[in-house]
Amino acid sequence: MSRQPFAQPGSRLVLYVNWDGFAYEWYRLVNTSYGGTPHINALLQDGVLFTNASTGVPAITGAMQQCLASGAWPVDTGNCYRYYHAENNVVMQFARENKLENIVEAAVRHKVRVAGVNAWYFENRGLFEGNEQQPYLRTESMPSNFGQRVDELIKVIHGEPVRMGDKHIIFDDIPQFLSIYADDIDTVAHNGRVTYDGLKVAGNIQEWYDNIAQTIMRMDQDLGRLVAALRRTGRYEHSSIVLTTDHGMIHYGAHSKEQHHEAEPGALTSLYDMTACIANVGLRHIGRKFAIEILPAGGMQAKSDTDIVIVPIMLQAQITFLHPACHPAIPDIIEQIKSKWYYGTHLTSDQLMKAGLPSTYADLVISSCPPYHFIPDPHGCYAVGGNHASLDPQVKHIFTMLSGANIAKGVVCDKPISIIDIAPTLARLLGFEGPQHATGTALDDGLQNHMQGPQLTITTTEDTIYTTVATVSGKASSGATITINGEHKGDVDESGSFAYTINCAAGVNRVLIEAAYGGRTSRRTIYMTVKDEMQST
């Protein structure tokens, strides 16, 4: 058994808690209709609740956890979960891929000691099982619930033996950056199994809500135990706690598994009706139905005579047009689908790019409304289900909070933030800026004044222009250095205003503006769409 020396009590400690599937709606529901979250609420008295936090697209764990880890969207991380790449004629599938540095790797680069419990998005990417300097810890039994994972982290805090692979280690003091992941909420909402004793798989929609609420209340109690361990060891006053998630969740499928003989509408897939509807639009544009292929799995390829490819992922359908006549038909397709009972919302290619996706992702994404789905199974879903591959507001609206040292106290912030702001905030709390190539920004509205970065406000209002030369203007702290899309532009004068020209290409242009001052950086992203003059008429 070995002992690992770390920073002494009194040094900063950042605890990153990631509860997969924690929709903001679940927090509201538990605190209005169930027993509440007293430990979260106590932390909020010493911190900040962000009421307008959002995840990205696609709202799927593999892709969004990498966005959280690196502070950037899929266009930069390279992880879009699954999509059809038209040029290569193949459905691309991703697991844990991430082209960017993550927050743990950045911390190690800055000589910050790190450790994590079941934080799989850092496994072999900063944390390693068997590595006593950068330990990846897991519960001895899997699957495990949040409470069991908290038990492991409390051992670290108390300096008790912790199993790592085939040996045990003792931390004389805990690392400065601790991360813990829990998939309990996501698991019970998917409704395949439960994670805490006394619960059972839901048989109807009310039991589904009850399971989610009971799970969150149990997790809240376990979070309270974790905070109590920090207090007992005298570390709480120097600890910053970040609690967030990768996505929310909504119901789909049947409302009760006992009603499957009635084939209630939500139980049956809407994929084939949507496919037929889109195919029929071809009659008005090319004199025949569009030839459509449904490609639901990675590695699949389209036939040479296919006009449209649909990649269905549970509650959303990603649509790529291969025939030249399909693109003029997009408004017609959208109009037809919007009249359908299962239509929830949609995003076009330009909107998808502005959501941080590569131009190759899709030409159109259709998202169903609850309880409808696009599962490629004609037999339907006769169970009570939950999923998050959706553009639904309840999926996008997530829970996020900060608490403890260096955090503003008792604040409710309603400004829009996103998951890509988490990693830069963790870095700021740890005493450095990062990770490298992050496009999110530290959450200054949740930090005490001495922790905030330079002021940066963008005053440019045009999002559509008809020239390839554009002006980006704004206000920033006097003396701040302005960089736009990686190009150094200059320092802000005493007036605090700046205006710089940039070159743009046809189509959607992402413009990343950075203001650096005093060793800290603030970022803002805007999008400018360059159109031909003929498109203005």
Automatic annotation (TrEMBL):
<protein>
    <submittedName>
        <fullName>Alkaline phosphatase family protein</fullName>
    </submittedName>
</protein>
<dbReference type="InterPro" id="IPR002591">
    <property type="entry name" value="Phosphodiest/P_Trfase"/>
</dbReference>
<dbReference type="InterPro" id="IPR013783">
    <property type="entry name" value="Ig-like_fold"/>
</dbReference>
<dbReference type="InterPro" id="IPR017850">
    <property type="entry name" value="Alkaline_phosphatase_core_sf"/>
</dbReference>
<dbReference type="Pfam" id="PF01663">
    <property type="entry name" value="Phosphodiest"/>
</dbReference>
